[in-house]
Amino acid sequence: MKPRYQRLGPTVAEEGFILKTIRAESFECPWHAHSEYELILVLESNGYRVVGENVSELKSGDLVLVGSDLPHIWKNDPHGAGTHFVHAILLQFEPRFLGDSLLQFPALAHIRRLLERASRGLHFTGATRDCVIDLMIQMQGMERYPQFLQLMKILGVLADSNEAQELASAGLIPKAVYYDQERMNRVFEFISTHLDNCLRLKDAAKVINLSESAFSRFFRLNTGRTFPSFVNELRVGRACRLLVETGKSVTEISYQCGFSNLSNFNRQFLRAKHLSPTVFRRDMQQRLGSLVDTAPAA
Q: What is the set of domains in the chain, with CATH numbers?
C-alpha cells in the first residue's frame, strides 16, 4: 500500500511554518507523506505511530520529528487500554523556511544537520523531550514573530540533543545529503543508481578517484559504516518498502534490491530486522491495514 502524498494548508507555504493543536477522538490522517517537516508532540493518545517501516506504540509525551517526504501515520486506538482521546501539538514548517543561504552560516550548521538527519525520522526522549514540550506549549499563546523565535529555539534544542533515535531505514530516505560533502553526494548517487546491480567497492572508489583502501577509510569516516554494511542497509530498506507496498514475491524483491541470491537476502534481512521478509510483510500489512482502513480521506 503506497502512502498518499498530501499537501498541507496554504498557511505553511505562505508563512513558512504553522502550529496546530489537535483535540479529538482520532488524528484523522491517512498513511501519507508531505514535503514539509513536522514535529509531532503527543500529550494524550493510545495507539500506534508508523514512520517509514518503523511501528511503535504511542504514549503520552511522544515527540518525533518527521523529515520531508517521509511516509507516516499516527493512529489512536479507541478500543485499547488507557486514554481514548487525542491531544497533540503539530509544528509544521517548509524545508526552506529559513532560506538556503541562512542555513549555510556556521552558527546554524547544527540545525542544518538536524534537518538532514530528520529524513529518517527522529524520536526524542529524556531532558530534550521535556524541554521541547514546555516550549511547544508556550508557543500556543504567542504572536507570529515570537512564535518564529520559539521555533528557532526548539530546533536549537533538538539539534544539540544526544537523546534522538533514528526510526526509518536509510533505504526509505527520499534524498540523502551528507553534511554538504560533495564527494559523498557523488558516491551516494552512484550507490542509488546501481543499487539493484552488482555494487563493487572498487567501482565506487573510482567515482571520486580514490584507491580502494583510501575510499574505505573515507566512507567510514563520513558514514560511520563500512561500504558493504551501508549498501546492505539501503537494500534492506528498499526491500521493506516493496514488501509493504507491492504484491511481488520475496524472491523477485530480493533480486530487484540487488541481492545475488535468496539465501543471502534472507540472511541480511534477518540480521537487520530480526525477522524474515515473509513475517515482516505479514506483520506490517496487518498493522498498516488496521490503521489505514479506518483513516478518513485527506
A: 4-168 (2.60.120.280), 176-289 (1.10.10.60)
